[in-house]
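Structure ticket #2291
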Amino acid sequence: MSERTDDSRGELDEVAGRLADAVEASERDAEEEMPETDDDIDVVDARDVGRAVTEDLTGLPLDRIVEVEGHEEGWRVIAEVVKRHSIPDTQDVIDRYVISLDSTGGVRGYGRAGRYRRGSLDEQREIFAVTDAERGTT
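Resolution: structure written out below.
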């Protein structure tokens, strides 16, 4: 019986070791996604920061980054998340969030800018019009 216990313990130790390695690799990958610098970030870094923080901020899985815009105080990233999956996927409910970043990539704030069904172009146009009006463009 002790041989069986030793075998089980060895298998458990092996699984625990693989799990620890996977956690370390995941943490390294997460650190690589976020630029670690006190310098100003560029548009690609702003996009990457938006990708990295969207799920944490909203609690919902990222669908896509739809816009990144620079301004004098930093960056504005617009991300879309799936609020509710549906069949067919054209009926998915999509939330659009605006994430404000400072010039070094720090999150300054975020808020939901709209909600629409993926297949509803009219609702999407309304959200785009509101977003454009906030920026002062048409």
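Closing remark: The longest helix spans residues 2-33.
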